[in-house]
Every structure is written in structure tokens, then in C-alpha cells.
Amino acid sequence: MKQNDKILIIIGLVAGMVGLAVMIGFIGQGNVRHVEIFWTEKVEQTIVFQEIDGETQIKAIKGVKGENNPTLISRTSFAYILTVINNGTTHHRLYIDGFNVQTDLLEPGQQDTITIFPETEGEFTYYDKRQYLEPLGKIKIFSVVPSDEFTGIWKDLI
Q1: What's the distance, CA 135 to chain centroid?
Q2: What region, left, alpha or beta, does residue 26 occupy, with left being phi > 0 and alpha being psi -120 to 50 degrees?
Q3: Cα four-point dihedral sign 105, 82, 95, 69
Q4: From CA 26, how far away is CA 6, in angstroms rounded?
Q5: Alpha-carbon dihedral sign for residues 66, 44, 93, 119
């Protein structure tokens, strides 16, 4: 084997290793995806109307923690999907002040879904709106930001 052939083989091996390292770095940064990785973010919660001791109450079923008339929590820039079920004995309508949205007038056993897209933080009251507004609880909207930013593959390996 000639001296020039050995040099070409060494150059080819080094170029191949550098190319592989560059590909791993490029792909590892998230620059190559076969599918979209950003799904529509959403918060889904389900609550029910019921009468307890003659008073209208909201009870949490899914995605909500708390006692009667819980504080509902969501994030800005997320779709907030609230399913409302009427397990009571009378008609009910959920109204959210600040967003000016409401369910249909729900007969006992019916349900409806509200979808809102909060853009700002705040605290909003929700009501049972039949003949008059009866305040039941609060919805709190928070902005959530990441604790740190992605600094690259090399910083993450250290």
C-alpha cells in the first residue's frame, strides 16, 4: 500500500467520524422530526351541579381537586375545556364572568362543554345563572414559564 493511500484512508475515517458527530449533534438538538412534536395544549376538567341541603353546589369529577365549589385552575395560552353536567333536580346554567361564556340551560341529566382560550392571568368568578347570578366559586388562570431554557446538547451533557 502506498503512503498516499494510507493518508486518504485516515482522512476518510476522520471525516466520517466528524460527520457522524455533527449529525448526532444536529439531530439531538431536535432539528429533525418525522412528526410534529407540538400538540395543542389543553386543560380538561369536568364538574357537576348538584343540590346539597337545598343549596346549589359544584362538585369536581375530573381534573379538579377540592371540596364543593372548588377553585378551578388553568394556564394561559392553553385551551381550557370545561364539561358541566347537571346532576341536580332543577335547571342550571354555568356562567364565567370575565370570559362572558356560559353553558346552555341544562335540564337535569344534561351536560354541555365550554372551551375558552385564556390569554392573561387572573381570577374569575363562576356562577349558576338561572333567574339571577348566584356566585359559586373561582377560576384562576396562571402563566407558567419554564424554569430554564434549553442550552444545547453540550451544556446538557455536562
Answers
A1: 26
A2: alpha
A3: positive
A4: 30
A5: positive
pLDDT of residue 59: 86
Class of residue 17 by CB neighbours under 10 A (exposed 0-12, middle 13-18, buried 19+): exposed
Report whether 93 contacts 86 (CB < 8 A). no
pTM for the predicted model, two decimal places: 0.64
Name the grid cell of 150.
Answer: 434549553
**Distance between CA atoms of residues 132 and 57, nearest Å:** 15
- Mean pLDDT value across residues 135-149: 77
Residue 123 half-sphere exposure toward CB, CA atoms < 13 A: 3
* C-alpha neighbours within 13 Å on the C-beta side of residue 50: 12
What is the distance between the alpha carbons of residues 25 and 31, in angstroms, rounded to a whole number?
9
What pLDDT digit, counting tens, does each position of 6-65 carry? 899 999 999 999 999 988 888 777 677 666 666 667 888 888 988 888 888 888 888 777
Grid cell for residue 59:
362538585
Other Cβ atoms closer than 10 A to 44: 14
| AA letter at 45 | Q
Is the Cβ–Cβ distance between 46 and 72 less than 8 Å?
no
